[in-house]
Amino acid sequence: MSDPIKFYFACVSPWSYLGFDALLEIAEKHGRAVALKPTNVGRTWSETGAGQPLGNRPEVLQSYRLLELPRWGAWRGVPINSEPKHFPAPFLLSSHVIIAARQAGEDAHAVTRALMRGCWADERNIADEGDVADILNGLGLDGAALVEAAGSDEVSAELEANTDDALADKAWSVPSYVVDGELFFGQDRLEMIDWRLSGGNN
């Protein structure tokens, strides 16, 4: 099997959510694993000078985003609430829980999907420890234990290492994908990743 596809993301990014299952399908089609790399997005924005919080963007971009989100949801067949109750939500807890789950040998892909869906379809607050524990319990996991583990130094160190990797790969925001050293930004590039892995332009 060739190198994994690196996936830099945050659960509070709707674009990370919209493309998640499509990414997994493309990876499976081409015999690739997906390396989940939750990332400190604020740090990549700051250190690259690219990207900014939604509220700081021009109104025309904010308005267009609200057109695009339901359109892409329909295109990908993914349920999405473009203006969820608990958004914007801090990203750290959800990112840390995913890392803690992986470190504990749990299915981090299932945890990622559940947290993303919690934010973008189920009106859950994925910055709240109780809501996150409930989401994890729904997967048959020990939610309280994973939430506690999410506060460990080892988890924090992995998030920062992921962010170091993202910066080394020239990724400035999420979702970003790195395939055999080549960066693709945005879930709207997934079909291009499929094309590339199919031998396109090689």
Plain-language structure description:
The protein has 202 residues and is of the alpha+beta class. It has one domain: 3-Layer(aba) Sandwich (Glutaredoxin). The protein contains ten helices and four strands. Strands 2-1-3-4 form a four-stranded mixed β-sheet. Strand 3 and strand 4 form a beta hairpin. Helix 2 runs parallel beside helix 10 and helix 7 crosses helix 8. The model has no long low-confidence stretch (mean pLDDT 97).
Helicity, as a percent range: 40-55%
Report the β-strand fraction as a percent range. 5-15%
What is the CATH-assigned architecture?
Answer: 3-Layer(aba) Sandwich
Beginning-to-end CA distance, first to last residue: 19 Å
Report the count of strand segments.
Answer: 4
The main sheet comes to: 4 strands, mixed
Low-confidence stretches: none
> Which structural class should the secondary elements be placed in?
alpha+beta
How would you spell out the order of helices and strands?
A: EHHEHHHHHHHEEH
- Rg, nearest Å: 16 Å
